[in-house]
Amino acid sequence: MASIAIAGAGIAGLAAAIALAREGHRVDLHERAEALTEVGAGIQLSPNAMAILRSLRLDEAVLARAFQPACVEIHARNGRVLNEIPLGERIRERYGAPYAVLHRADLQAVLLEEARQTPGLCLSLASPLAFVRQDGTEVVYRAGETERTADILIAADGVNSRARADIFGRGGPTETGYTAWRAVISRDRIPYGLRTDVTGLWFGEASHLVHYPVKGGSELNLVAIARSSRDPRPPLDGFAEPIRALKDTAPAWIAWPLRGMDASEGWVQNRVALAGDAAHAMVPSAAQGGAQAIEDAAVLTRCLSTHDNPVAALAAYDSIRRPRATRIAAESLRNLRIYGLRGPAALARDTVISTLPGRTHLSRLDWLYSPQPG
């Protein structure tokens, strides 16, 4: 079994550490922060991710903190319901796993608790990892002031990955020109007419907003996306009611410039591999950022369990994951542009969405939602 160092204890790093340690590998997980406090709001876990969490026996703990929406309800700019894409029992029947939404902090709490209880996994906080060198037999890195070695190094240290810069010589993420404004509101502040049992997608003027329940349905997660601006609140005036009311209903909006990585570039250099946002940061318009981090963990584990040579295992991981993540990142960007259409192009978009049956829209996601080998 291999000795594995992982940089970053986000979703990718925690999931990979748990899965690898369970296979008997010795895992040292290093996180530069002194405490794990998840930044962000909600996260959507489609069946491709939930199937992996089930294989790790973590699905029940996640579902206990999650909500399973009945459908994706899509609205035109005037508020008219264009279509409903079935979720709930229909998606369980089709893919063998549920579609769940929850707060990112709740997912991280489940993973963190499991990591601390997993034999062979050592989690070190306030322990920034710095790459030193690698050769034909090992990777040398520094954790704090201590120099250590491992058979392989997994860089899951986020969109601003230090390891990606130091080892692969790549710069930071690319600005997309869009901003996501995020907020969470309690049930008693939700405007009349806004369903709380669904994932809602509303089109506005060259913008869109997504909402879904978190904290077991007691709160509503909001994400509005539009062209970047300096406004601390999202441009919701171009939406129908009740979305316009959310601009002042939400107690606080947090603006996040959307950035992405070119996922098509190589993720592996000999004994070092990228994972999570360090490899494939993508815009949220396919709701796959967290799911793809979980897929990374599953495929890494499978490859390291089926290849005796760590270098060959990482090469296999790259060949499996990179094409799929590249396609998903491109699809996410395509969705972002479609959601931001205006004028006649927006009317054409709405016509297509309303004409096709909801089950047809769902079937077009088979390639994305079907559980992957892992």
Automatic annotation (TrEMBL):
InterPro entries: FAD-bd (IPR002938), FAD-dep_Monooxygenase_BioMet (IPR050493), FAD/NAD-bd_sf (IPR036188). SUPFAM superfamilies: FAD-linked reductases, C-terminal domain, FAD/NAD(P)-binding domain. Its cofactor is FAD. Keywords: FAD, Flavoprotein, Monooxygenase, Oxidoreductase. Gene3D superfamilies: FAD/NAD(P)-binding domain. Residues 3-167, 265-330 form the FAD-binding domain. GO terms for molecular function: FAD binding; monooxygenase activity. Pfam families: FAD_binding_3. This is Salicylate hydroxylase.
